[in-house]
Amino acid sequence: MSIAWIDVSGGSETHIPDKPQKAFSPPEPAQAQGANCDFWDDDCAHDGAPGRNGLGGISGLDGGAGGNGGSITFQVGIINGAVKFTARGGDGGRGGDGGDGGDGSKGGKGGDGNDCEFGRRGGDGGVGGAGGAGGAAGNGGNGGSILVLVGIDNSTNSDPLNATGGNPGKWPDGSTGGGHGGSGGAGGAAGDFGDTSGSFSSSSECPFPGIPAQNGANGSPGAPGRAGRGGNGGSAFLKVTGP
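The chain above was modelled as a monomer; its predicted structure follows.
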């Protein structure tokens, strides 16, 4: 014999929010000013400008909440066979992943020596942007209410009433938790040295090209989204009133 279902369960959230686009990565700075070669006094070339930092990633969107279970009031003289009453809360949705951080820009090229001084060091690379935090998992919906009044209960179900709360948002493997944090942006490369060319004699004010620039650090990954909570259980009551 088939089971008769009376079901007013809340809907489960199945939509997964889209991951935001990667954050902005700034352009490389312009080359630094070269040396000013003068008959009486040379001015040194400038150091390259430091690269700019990438922007932080956008946080992921929160998962949707499951729908709350509905209400059943059922009064009948006799229940025969298998009848199931269900007013379960719907399951929450998974949180969206955070966006990736923007890459730091390459450091600017150092100024050229212009045949009278050393070309100067480039700028340090910019720091990658931090990844965006993952979105929170959706909460499960609350269970509804079931009231069954029956004169004679001949039902064969071992669990005829179900008004449990819904589950929080889950991953396909069944683990709970919000969306993944975004990846940190890549650090920018060190800027190039300015050109040292031709036959030149460096002055006492600028006898060295400078210490080589450093690559920028990678951005930190975003934090995972928080887990959702399960829905509260509803009320389920079957009362046999007698013939």
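The chain is about 0% helix and 15% strand.
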